[in-house]
UniProtKB/TrEMBL annotation:
SUPFAM superfamilies assigned to the protein according to its UniProt record, in alphabetical order: Thioredoxin-like
InterPro entries noted in UniProt: Thioredoxin (IPR005746), Thioredoxin-like_sf (IPR036249), Thioredoxin_CS (IPR017937), Thioredoxin_domain (IPR013766)
Record's keyword annotation contains Disulfide bond: yes
Keyword Disulfide bond: yes
Organism name: Natronobacterium gregoryi (strain ATCC 43098 / DSM 3393 / CCM 3738 / CIP 104747 / IAM 13177 / JCM 8860 / NBRC 102187 / NCIMB 2189 / SP2)
Coiled coil feature spans: none
Name of the featured protein: Thioredoxin
Cellular component, GO, one term: cytoplasm
This protein's UniProt keywords: Disulfide bond, Electron transport, Redox-active center, Transport
Domain Thioredoxin per the UniProt entry, residue ranges: 5-119
One Pfam assignment: Thioredoxin
PROSITE patterns per record: THIOREDOXIN_1, THIOREDOXIN_2
Any GO molecular function: protein-disulfide reductase activity
Length: 119
């Protein structure tokens, strides 16, 4: 089930990943929250599927908002952020992009990136 555009608003992180429905939605999520980890993914991508339970755990256990962008549905948005492969992880802190990583990162590495900007 996809989470609607209003979940986790007012600086309160959502406890499950938010599915982004376009550029304005992503802009709103990044603006409304201190730390946002964005997963650019594709349903057909095996590594993306491996990353899914990790992102669900991080959404439940960290103060970051986990946002997901389907690159097949939002090709222009992916292009705007220079996404060339999936999964691509972007991290935003205080409205600014601070990290970008291509490929699957282990949970402890992702948690460390989030913790670096939430402390």
């Amino acid at each position: 089930m996809a989470t609607d555009a209003h979940s986790g608003t007012n600086g309160t992180p959502a406890d499950e990943p938010l599915y982004v429905d376009g550029e304005q939605h992503l802009d709103d999520v990044v603006t409304d929250h201190d730390v946002v980890l964005v997963d650019f993914y594709a349903d057909w991508c095996g590594p993306c599927q491996m990353l899914e339970p990790v992102l669900e755990t991080l959404a439940e256990e960290t103060d970051a908002v986990i946002a997901k962008v389907d690159v097949d549905e939002h090709q222009l948005l992916a292009g705007d952020y220079g996404v060339r492969g999936v999964p691509t992880i972007l991290l935003f802190a205080d409205g600014e992009q601070v990290e970008q990583h291509v490929g699957v990162l282990p949970e402890d590495r992702l948690r460390g990136l989030i913790d670096e900007y939430t402390e």
